[in-house]
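TICKET: design request
STATUS: open
ATTACHED STRUCTURE:
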């Protein structure tokens, strides 16, 4: 389990393809502290550490993960958001994040606004995921609050600290991001759909 509070940024140093899997080699400040079999969120995707070599750790994404996330679009040199799993003696500063991406979205607007930046996103509504105003959403693994919510779109306002310390600063109109919708909202949505 994660909180959506990004610990650090990592750089994709190397990508290797093996059948339908992709191995990513990520350089970061936390890589030397990781352990084999540890779960780490990469742009909101929970991946298992399978190798460590100094400042670089290795993770593998399977076909299903690549289909449901933006990991398949990563290139060498790209920046990824990293978060280690929650410690049981710590505070839950963001919200409950599983590291299971529900779907991707496209950035449709980037608008500076009185010291913050408002990002807008659009996603496929046929999967029946939803956002609510002032509710939680995870974008590329970042716990954020929805400021505008539509049937298949939403916006978030990003403070300068979050912009500086995550890969949101690299987004532009047309960029693909990973979404994990709020777990409580998903359960409520499921229960309501069972009543229909």
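STATUS: resolved
RESOLUTION: sequence designed for all positions
ATTACHED SEQUENCE:
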């Amino acid at each position: 389990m994660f909180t959506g509070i990004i610990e650090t940024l990592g750089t994709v140093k190397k990508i290797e393809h093996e059948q339908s899997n992709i191995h990513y080699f990520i350089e970061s400040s936390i890589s030397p502290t990781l352990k084999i079999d540890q779960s780490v969120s990469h742009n909101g995707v929970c991946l298992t550490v399978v190798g460590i070599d100094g400042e670089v750790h290795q993770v593998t994404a399977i076909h299903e993960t690549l289909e449901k996330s933006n990991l398949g679009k990563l290139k060498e040199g790209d920046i990824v958001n990293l978060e280690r799993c929650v410690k049981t003696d710590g505070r839950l500063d963001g919200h409950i994040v599983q590291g299971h991406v529900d779907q991707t979205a496209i950035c449709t607007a980037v608008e500076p606004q009185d010291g913050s930046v408002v990002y807008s996103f659009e996603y496929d509504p046929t999967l029946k995921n939803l956002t609510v105003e002032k509710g939680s959403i995870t974008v590329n693994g970042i716990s954020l609050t929805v400021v505008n919510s539509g049937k298949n779109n939403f916006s978030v306002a990003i403070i300068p600290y979050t912009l500086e310390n995550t890969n949101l600063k690299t987004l532009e109109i047309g960029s693909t991001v990973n979404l994990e919708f709020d777990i409580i909202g998903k359960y409520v949505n499921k229960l309501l759909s069972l009543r229909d």
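CLOSING REMARK: The first strand starts at residue 8 and ends at 18. DSSP finds three helices and twelve strands in the chain.
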